[in-house]
Every structure is written in C-alpha cells, then in structure tokens.
Amino acid sequence: MELAQNPSRGTKHILMVLDAFFPFDLRVEKEGRALVDAGYRLTVVCYRNEGQSLEEIRDGIRIVRTPAVVGHAKKGITDILRSLSGQNFTLKSLIRRELANADAIHAHDLPVYATAYALAKGKGLPVILDMHENFPEGLLAWFQWRKKPLIRIKNELFFSYKAWLRKEKTALNSADRVIAVVEEMRDRMVKLHGTDASKVTIVGNTESERLTEDKKGGSVMIPRSKKIVYVGSIGPHRGVDTAIEAMPYILAEDAEVRLVVVGSGNADTLAHLQSMAEQKGVADAVRFTGQVPYDAALKHMEDALLNIIPHHSNGQNEATVPHKLFQILLSRAPLMVSSCAPLKRIVGDNDAGLVFEAGNAADFAVKAVWALSHEEELQKMTERGMQLVKTGGYKWENDAARLVKMYDNLFVQT
Questions:
Q1: Which of helix, strand or coil describes residue 270?
Q2: Same structural domain for residues 200 and 236?
Q3: Can you tell me the distance from the alpha carbon of 261 to that of 228, in angstroms, rounded to the nearest whole number?
Q4: The dihedral sign for the CA sequence 384, 385, 389, 390
Q5: pLDDT tens, 324-377?
C-alpha cells in the first residue's frame, strides 16, 4: 500500500527511544522505515554495542548511541537504577540533547517510558508509548528457569510484578498516544487500567507482502521433511518444553520425526530444555542449532513438516504475537500454533494452520501425528495462510498506514 505524501511531514521530527541496541530490533526497524518513507524525519536513541559508531544513518533513519559501550554489567546496573529511581540515567542526557530538535518522542516499551515522558513534558512535547509486550506479565514468565543466585535476587528485588503493573497504568494513562501489537492487548489496557481506547492504535508485527515476490504460487506440492521446527528466541514462556514433552508420543508413531530448535537463549534455559530431552529419552531426536543466518532459518522453515509457535498461555502470550507468525504464513510453510487467543484468532479461526491446546503435550502430539499423513490438507492451509496476509488484512502495508495516520492526526491536534 502506497502512503500518500503529506507536505507537512517533512517539517516534523520524531525521536524514538529504545532500551536496547539498534539495529536489529525488527519492530523499530519497520516502524522507522515506514515513517521515513512517509516523509517524516526520524532519530533513534539507543545503547552502543562493541564495534558500533556513535552516530550513523541507516535506511534514512538517524541512529544516535550512548558515548560508552553498554555491556551486560552496565545494562544490569542501568536496570536496577531505573527500577529504584524511575529514570534511565544511561540514556537520559542523550535524550535531553536530541529533544532540542524533536516534535514528538516515541518510547519503545515500558522500561524507557518514564524517562522519555519526564523530559518530553518539560518541553511540552507529545509522548507515544509503543507497547511491544505485556511487560509486567512478562516478568512472571521470562526468568522462571534462571539459576544464578545474583540474577534471581536482582529480579525479585527490582522487577516486582505489582510495581511494574502500577507503572504500566501510569504510563498508559499519561501517554498522548499508545501503540499495541494486537487487539487483545488493547482490550486488556482498557479493561485493566481504564485506558482510553480512542488513543490506542494497533500496529502489528506483520510482514510486507513483498516477501512473497520470489515465491512460486499456487498448488505445487512442496516436498516436506519430517522435521518439526521452532525458530525464534528461546525462553520459559515460548513452549519449546511442550514440544519436547510431546516427542515420545510422536516417535512412537514415526521414529524418523525430529524436533529442530533454531535460535538462542540464555544458558540456564538451554540447559533446562536439554536436560528435559535427556530425561524423556528423546535427546537424539531433538537438535538445538543455536542462532543461524536468516537464509538458513528460512530453509528450515520451508521444508518443515510443521513450523510451531507453541507459546504457553500466560498474560504475556495472550496479548501479543511474534513476527515469525507472519513470516511463516508468507513462506507458505505448514504451521501449528498453541491456543493463545491472538494465535488462535488469526490461525485457527481462518483455518490457516493447526491449533493445539497450550501446554498440552498430548494434544500437540496428536496434531503433529495427524500432519504426517495429511500433506494435502496442510498444503491447503498454507495457501489460506498466504491469502490471509495478501488479501485478508494481515500485511505490514496496512499497519504502516495506521502508524503514519496516527502521527498525521497527532500533529494536526498539537
């Protein structure tokens, strides 16, 4: 979808603030390019990693980084000081400097919001809160398998669910505009915190339909391996443990099936999953590849028997969807998701893939075994998935248009 040019956009400068390195945050990247392509000027303030410059321009996005490199230790200290004071002192002076030429500040997720808000309101600038995830609920899920005592103590002392829930309510009700990934997240904000629904814009983690330009269309049957493939970051909330727990049932039906886990996770998480595979007697049938280049990950996805998004049902996963959902749909690859509300709504309600009950290894196994002998039905699902993105509204071009329209309306009103 082509975005109509608004002549006034070129006079407006948006300052995005990110509590991470950049690149590569895919959501920030896509939103930034959409706004630049529409004619807005854009700067991203973020941390500096080893080997990164203090400033650069990438795809029209100006990136400004902290003077000092921010390693794990410094990031940990930053997180603790932010929890105690509400302010991100590592980014604060950089944000203050860049705000001198900004017309709005766009805070990427809850941890950086308070700092962005305090500085922006001192200058009378509008603040946009981009809720990448349900942060308070995420705190309950992300650290379950961490074993190091210092990490556990830090998380218990400084990352209290109740404290961050209060911060979330304050942020949502003070922001001029709020961005949510899915409708379920918007509805949660309204119901739990009384957020004004009219100031919430849905900007999903969808993908551009241009990803399909090199795909051959139609009904050609693609030879599939007997691999069940998970691609993405690995954590307690992701549900890879459900897939491992299901493998003994699946192998009893077909001993050639393999579970391939593509992506990275912390050492405690990987050790937990590898130990589980050994205890279940399926270690030889479960492969952890680590992080691989994009093309290699895509190859795993394309020839898989099933690509899986096996998320556990919790407050975090019931209010978001990952980018890879739409990458899989556009790659015309077979898909099985858990019954988390956004996944079930998008995939199950449109018959674009299989859905199993979240956390239920037996149901996971039943659906995976069904897939072994129903290739034609799976192929039809993949075609419906492709069309769901191309013609059903789940494409980045639509989300980009909503983002740009939100900013157009904001600047008219301020």
A1: helix
A2: no
A3: 9
A4: negative
A5: 999 999 988 999 999 999 999 999 999 999 999 999 999 999 999 999 999 999
Query: Beta 258-262 vs 41-48: how paired, if at all?
Result: unpaired
Inform me whether the pLDDT recorded for 214 exceeds 90: no
Rounded to whole angstroms, the Cα distance separating 137 from 74 reads 25
Residue 72: both structure tokens together: 């794990």
Read off the pLDDT band of 219 (50, 70, 90).
very low
> What is the number of other CB atoms lying within 10 angstroms of the CB of residue 302?
18
3-state secondary structure at position 294:
helix
The whole-angstrom separation of Cα 218 and Cα 379 is 10
DSSP H helical ranges for 86-160: 89-99, 113-121, 135-142, 149-158
| Rounded Cα distance, 359 and 310, in Å | 8
Residues 406, 198 contacting (CB under 8 angstroms): no
- Give pLDDT tens digits for 258-270: 999 999 998 999 9
Q: 257 and 355 share a domain? A: yes
**CA distances, 292 to each of 200, 251, 264, 299 (Å):** 36, 26, 9, 11
Let me know how many helices (H) and strands (E) the chain has, helices first.
16, 14
Contact 352, 383 (CB under 8 A): no
| Structural domain contains residue 347 | yes
Domain range for 159 is 7-206+395-413
Bridging pattern class, strands 354-356 and 306-309: unpaired
DSSP 318-365: GG---HHHHHHHHTT--EEEE--HHHIIIIITTTSSEEE-TT-HHHHH
Q: Max Cα separation, the chain? A: 65
CA separation for the pair 181, 312 (Å, rounded): 18
Both 196 and 222 in one domain: the answer is: no
Residue 2 falls within a domain, yes or no? no
How many domains are there within the chain?
2
Q: Which helix (H) or strand (E) holds 123?
A: none
Residue 1 falls inside a structural domain:
no
| Same domain assignment for residues 184 and 321 | no
Indicate the residue type of 288: F
> Measured at the alpha carbon of residue 40, what is the angle toward residues 39 and 44, in degrees to the nearest 5?
135
- Please report whether residue 195 resides in a domain: yes
- Same domain, residue pair 121 and 269: no
Same domain, 58 and 128: yes
CATH number at residue 259: 3.40.50.2000
**Same domain for 86 and 228?**
no
Co-location of 94 and 123 in the same domain: yes
Q: Which region, left, alpha or beta, applies to residue 162 given φ > 0 means left and ψ of -120 to 50 means alpha? A: alpha
pLDDT at residue 3 tops 60: no
